[in-house]
Design brief:
The complex is a heterotrimer of chains A (273), B (426) and C (292).
Chain A (H helix, E strand, L loop, with lengths): L1 H30 L4 H4 L15 H10 L1 H32 L3 H15 L4 H10 L6 H24 L4 H9 L4 H12 L1 H17 L2 H6 L22 H34 L3
Chain B lengths: L1 H22 L3 E7 H5 L1 H14 L2 E7 L1 H13 L6 E4 L24 H4 L13 E2 L3 E9 H7 L8 H13 L3 E4 L10 H4 L3 H4 L4 H6 L9 H12 L15 H10 L2 E7 L1 H9 L7 E4 L14 E4 L2 E4 L6 H11 L2 H10 L17 H12 L3 H9 L12 H8 L5 H18 L6
Parallel strand pairs in B: 1-2, 1-3, 6-7
Antiparallel strand pairs in B: 3-10, 4-10, 5-7, 5-8, 5-9
Helix pairs in contact in B: 3-15, 6-7, 11-19, 18-19
Chain C lengths: L1 H6 L6 H21 L18 H8 L1 H32 L4 H11 L6 H11 L6 H8 L16 H26 L3 H9 L4 H12 L1 H16 L3 H4 L13 H10 L3 H32 L1
The chains are: A mainly alpha (273), B alpha/beta (426), C mainly alpha (292).
Amino acid sequence: MAGRRKFIIARVLLFIVSLVYIIPVWMVLINSFKVTAEANMMGISLPSDMVFHFENYREVIRTGGIIRGFINGIIESLLSVILIIIAASAAGFVIARRNSRLSNAVFMLFIMGLIVPVAYIPTYLVLDRLHLLDTYTGIILIFTTYGLPQSVFLYVQFAKTIPRELDEAAILDGCSTMQLFTRVIFPLLRPTTATVFVLSFVGAWNDVMIPMFFVNGNKWALPLTVYNFYGGYMKSWNLVFADIMLTIAPLIVVYLLAQRQIVSGMTAGAVKG
Amino acid sequence: MKMKKWVLGALGLMCTGLFATAACAETLTVMIGSEDSGGVAVKAAMDKAAEIMGIDLEYSVFPTDQFLNVLNTKGATGNLDDVIFTSYSLSDLPYNEFAELSGDWQEKITDTTRQFTVNPETGETVFAPFGPESNFGLAYNKKVLENAGVTVPIVNYSDFLEACEKIKETGVTPLYVSAQENWTPQILLLTSFTTTLMKDDLVDQLTTNQVKPQDVEGIVKIWDNVCKLQDAGILNEDYRSATHDMGKKAVANGEAAFYCVTDGAYGEIMNEYPDLIDDVGLTICPMWDNEEDAFVMANRSCRCLAVAKNSKNLDLAKEFVNTCITEEVMTTYYELSPGAVPYRDLGFSLPMSSWNEEMTALSETFPTYGDWCNALYDGKPKMNPFFGDFDLRVQSMFSGKTAEEAVTEWYTKYAEDAKAKRVEGF
Amino acid sequence: MKKKKSIYAWWLLLPAILIYAIFFIIPNVAGMALGFTDWNVYFFDDIRFNGLENFARLFGEKTFWIAVKNTFYFAIMTVVLKNVLGFLLALAVRRESRFNSYLRTVIFLPIMISSIVVCIIFVSIYNPSTGILNQFLNGIGLHALAKSWLVDERYAMNAIVAMEVWQWAGLNMLIFYSGMQAIPSEYYEAAKIDGASYWQEVRYVMLPLMVQSFTITFIFSIISGLKVFSQVYGTTNGGPADSTQVMATFLYRSFSHGHYGYSAAVGFVFMVLIMLFSAIVFGILRKKEVEY
């Protein structure tokens, strides 16, 4: 009996914990359907007149450049994540296997990237010199750069757990280095690839500072669109919240659809088995 | 093999992305700060102009605290958008990157605003004033004042405190302060500080670093007057966390008697509480001790349009600016946000607000800010480059800093800026 | 040895290194050098060497020391809370059930949201008069606990800590969860036979085997704690009166005023501090990892 009671109390407590996570998102969702005056009160009840004002979304989509922001986000995040995965997995594999002073130094350089704050203006000038300012190529390369340290770190951690005997067996079977990597090692790194994909994609999708400096407004992704509505003089919280919903919805939908794969991939990738 | 497909697909996507943006012709890009774009009037008016010309506008809306930095960085490397809408003054901006503008409107700019539109090095007009000339002051609720038997204008600090006591007796909050946002508390000083600065050659001494503001008794005193408002028991209790939205509401519906604002608040109250706007007036903000220091804060239009010299659509952008200063567009703007138009004889009339009229009437009794500047410094905005996070410094007094600490920090900050700008003496 | 080297061709490193060198190493090395100049936005093309002036100015600024103190406070608080909460949550959700999978999904969800957006959401939650937090506290009669969260310097920093923990505890939970999954069930069974209680099982079976998970969560949470930026920028932006200033917002302020040379110097000092702190912590962690 005592065990049963404990179990129920634990469940109730955990359910309350989950509410702490759900209520903020619910608050955003429900207020995005209200008229301005009511949304500014930020309650969590249904609209008082029981009318859901979908026109808030129409207004945000019309004036906020949402569709363009969505396309930009997909282009920039997806392409940079692909580059990150290619570059970081290859680098991570070599660093994990070669135990030379040079490869350790390279690894330390990448670790530094986790620590050093972004030098915006010098980076801006590099892009300017290369004529990459305000181009998709430029911002994708920058996102790639800032995704690399974390991803290399994760790949190195995981690649160390793959037995070296596999490499030798593959080489004896006549694999070239390239084939060894693409056919044998890369598939085995899949859990880390899932982790890197999620963390880097989310990182690029949600970044605001990098696009703000390195590209013009027509190449901005969704998060920056909130400033169309989140000004200082007047706040229409219903529009702010509608914009926030549109900004986070794509990731949340993908997450809910693929959460089993993401969670299992993430977890397997983060820690060795 | 799979990977190759991915890469090819990715490259394909990248190319379509690039072409998709290249294909759109007849589009102007516009840089704007989020504070400004939040106001309905500006965007509505610019959209109107675009509609007349049959072109598209693409806005880059920047978070306000980053706008100036981005403008200057992009300016320094010649990467500005086609059109820039800003409320900053030229001295803070990369004005040499702005194209010369010309149109019928150019000759008609009022004297108050004109010198703020000209590139100080070349004399070219680079700013087209768009928004109204500004009136800052103390918004007041007419019914509340009547009820308490208080009349405006109030001409000095001690009279003001006395009036507040009377209002307090009627159960209404005398003065509303909204210190959560950094830009609102500073208006208390912006509307009352000028005459203190303009004494003798104080500005010359400050701008050459011969005198520090914390050593000038008058300066510390007037900051202290603002700081002491907290101890007088006349503020709303939540003044630290209150917002501008709450302040407008309080003064409109009579929860508070006074609230310090820019004249932009008129349009906002008008749109949000149309029934209440006639209850709200605007008067001078007497933080000074001496009646002789009274003045009306009436200043240049600080919402202007500029065009980037390097714009690929230079002619179109210039035409856009000229289209903005026409009857149809200006009417759109001023109907949503009425104010004193920064032009003479445009050939059409635009809605002014009752606030502007009230302040104009006051300026017959009291000198205006412009008069002070003109009399002493040919109207040159000498103190403009010495902003030094003025807003944050004033706000910090409402979070426990003393006036002296706040003034000292103001000096430290503006001295750092002046040094960066290589101003002599710093 | 020589034979092995030939398998792991160095050119596989090239793509990563090239991109990284051009867009990270070059700008940052240049940036560090610029820390010794007066480079600023007003004289963009006319840079003057000014020796150690920037550093002298930095160490003389009271706000800088406030920022250092706050950053370490934030980092320590979030590292502890994220790891403790993450671990407890992982314990709670580790068995497979529908309810637990719901919990895992929900708790991991905030990681998907841009931190700037999380800030905007929490600014409204923390609003003293209209925010749901105070409305809830007032609603259940706890008026005394309803504070001016983000505007009162006594609570602002902790309010931001709570927000950060809300958003990121889920990541640690997931990492711990997978660490727990990886422990073979025989270990638990052996402990059961020995008559170990639940908490003894956690302490003597689970914890020692999860050092690797802790290393990763520690590294991620320490670095993200010390580099905290958007969480402060989006809520208080260092206010009220600089009481919540952290190193990154301090850096950002000098940068957004266009004082690039100075901000490069700030960034440099900032980096050295983080490296020192991380080195100490990682040293301790590595020792632990060896012990077990």
